[in-house]
């Protein structure tokens, strides 16, 4: 029997596109190990004996990027994948181009972008009713612009680096079907950066 290939999937997406739902499906249905850059930042804050607040998250993340490089949190998340010994894993909370550049150097890594139309994402945001979420369409648009290029992040550029795109404008069941369509292609199609001309496989309903 052939040895199981290593499959590490990184996920990028704007708020309420469905990235978390896709990751949860892979973890529960297919046994993927979960690693997150955000969890690594939280762990650093705990080790410092500080309270985990939004300000401390941003401050700590930026401080270590300045000290060790823009890909430091991706490096730490990758170390957790290696320590797990698992052949299948997901890396969550990827937000910077340098993080993706680091991860794409690792064997078996592919980047998946989960997309959804802005009005659908806004509706999902209203339904989840989380404290601090925008309450009007205008507030939502302002948040989008503010968050796209702050704290070393460039979400648009990250989305453009994806090897696979999944459009999540429909039901959870449709999202899961698209994920199942992606999995057989992993390690059979070259990654985008293996081409002189960039290539992307998209799964749109």
UniProtKB/TrEMBL annotation:
<dbReference type="InterPro" id="IPR027417">
    <property type="entry name" value="P-loop_NTPase"/>
</dbReference>
<protein>
    <recommendedName>
        <fullName>Dephospho-CoA kinase</fullName>
    </recommendedName>
</protein>
<dbReference type="Pfam" id="PF13207">
    <property type="entry name" value="AAA_17"/>
</dbReference>
């Amino acid at each position: 029997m052939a040895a199981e290939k290593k499959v590490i999937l990184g996920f990028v997406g704007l708020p309420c596109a469905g990235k978390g739902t896709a990751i949860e499906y892979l973890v529960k249905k297919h046994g993927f190990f979960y690693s997150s850059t955000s969890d690594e930042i939280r762990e650093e804050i705990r080790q410092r004996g500080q309270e985990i607040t939004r300000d401390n998250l941003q401050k700590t993340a930026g401080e270590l990027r300045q000290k060790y490089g823009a890909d430091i949190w991706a490096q730490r998340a990758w170390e957790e994948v290696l320590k797990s010994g698992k052949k299948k894993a997901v890396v969550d909370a990827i937000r910077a181009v340098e993080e993706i550049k680091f991860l794409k150097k690792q064997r078996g890594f592919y980047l998946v972008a989960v997309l959804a139309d802005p009005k659908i994402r806004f509706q999902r945001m209203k339904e989840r009713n989380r404290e601090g979420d925008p309450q009007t369409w205008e507030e939502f648009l302002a948040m989008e612009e503010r968050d796209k290029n702050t704290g070393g992040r460039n979400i648009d550029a990250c989305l453009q680096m994806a090897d696979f795109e999944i459009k999540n404008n429909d039901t959870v069941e449709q999202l899961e079907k698209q994920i199942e369509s992606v999995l057989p292609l992993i390690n059979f199609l070259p990654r985008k950066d293996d081409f002189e001309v960039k290539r992307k496989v998209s799964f749109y309903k």
